[in-house]
Amino acid sequence: MDAIWIEGNRTLSGEVTVQGSKNAALPVLAATLLVPGVTRLLNCPEISDVSCMCEILRHMGARVERRGKEVTVDASELTGCRILPEHAVRMRSSVILAGALLGRCREAFFFQPGGCVIGDRPIDMHLWALGRLGVFFSGREGEIRAQALRLRGAFVRLPFPSVGVTQNAVLAAVGAEGTTRLTNCAREPEIGALCRFLRGAGADVREEGGGEIRVEGGRPLHASTFWIDADRIVAGTYLAGVLAAGGKAFLRQAPWYELKAALKAARRMGAVVRTESHGLYVERTGRLLSPGELVTGVYPAFPTDLQSPFLAAMCLAEGKSSIRERIFNGRFGVAGQLNRMGADIRIGGDRAFVPGGRRLSGCRVAAGELRGGAALTVAGLCAQGRTVVENCHFIRRGYEDIVRDLKELGADIGNETEVPPDEGRQV
Ligand code: EPU
Question: Does the first or last residue of the chain, that is N or C, have fewer Cβ atoms within 10 Å of its Cβ?
Answer without folding.
Answer: N
